[in-house]
Design brief:
The complex is a heterodimer. By secondary structure, chain A is mainly alpha-helical. Chain A contains nine helices and no strands. Classes of the chains: A mainly alpha, B mainly alpha.
Chain lengths: ~210, ~210
Amino acid sequence: MTDDQLDERIRGAAREYNAPPATPREEMWARIAEARRDRVPEPRVIPLRRRRWRWAGLAAAAAALLAVGVGIGRVSVAPEASVWEVPSAKGAAYRLAAQEHLGQSEAFLTLFRASLQQPGDHRLAAASARQLLATNRLLLDSPAAGNPKTRLLLEDLELVLAEIAQLSPSSRAEDLELIREGIEQGGVMPRLRTAVPAGAAPTQGVL
Amino acid sequence: MQAGLEWLPGDFSQPFRPHRCPIAEDRDPHAPEPVSDAELIDRVLAGDPEAERALYDAHVDRVFRLVYRMAGDLDRAQDWVQETFIRAFEKLGDFRGESALSTWLCSIAMSVSLNGLRKVKRFREREVALDDAPPVGFTPREADPDLKTRLAQAIEDLPEGYRAVFVMHDVEGFTHEEIGRTLGVQPGTSKAQLFRARAKLRQALADFAGDRNV
């Protein structure tokens, strides 16, 4: 049997893969409607032409708010909120660990992307990715991942690191291209840079 | 990614072909003229609950089919479809109309499904770690199920990107252009992933190549 014939048999059998039953419309709608009722509605976007008359009022309110904000800022010193802030004192250790990990990951991915320009053996990169992947999984299970943004960033990072960890000398250019696309399309690098404050990203131990 | 949307920049520059939508194909010819998506969106944004329901009714079948194919479990599929529509209603103000609404909804649905599958995978990995791991490298031939069962397992073992493309293309009949817009990748990437997914499936099912009676 040729590959094409086997493909055809596979496609035929695949049509029954997870064959969906009838859509449970009412059941799902009841839960969607309930969830929608329970949520605080977000401010609606009003088309520009309708809200033009409100500009003066909005500008005055914004100016007042800005003045109050500046005043408050001058009399108080509040730590800058960050993506992975854990809202308790005991979360500080996890926060620091997450910060260091994200900083190391950013440095690693920066070097890895640069290395894609030249052909070569990516076994060292795969080994480093495996180390980072292990830390990443620990952090995903820790309170550091309690913040939804941190969790999402760690989950995306996990996918990228897992792909790099699987590289071998026999990996093809297509594999590298898919990894590069994964990094770029997920916006992983900008989000890592946003998550890690400047100068707070020790890189030792990875490179 | 937010559970979602950030990784779906997508190329929404080409129009979606609505004839593939099963809703459109199955529509009752005597039913009243359907309301356009643009009109429904305006009404939903204006806070019309009936429009929310109409929008849901117009698209839920396609979304459910796709999500169920990925989930393979009714409870999970229902949860993910619900999450898809809840997110869609919350983000509807950000929908720019550069793609069809059905494509945008499928993008959210795939994002929710892939995130859900990752969680399921992690959960299963923990379970396996706790239990006694099965012996590796020994698969008794008499326990081999038929092609469909083996195929289902092989599809589930595919890397998630390959699996998404294979399910969308070979099972649900999306084109590479539609897959590209839905997953936020180039059609060429979709083709490459499908090629590799098929190769992996052929490899996994190689022993069926000589068996014409299964």
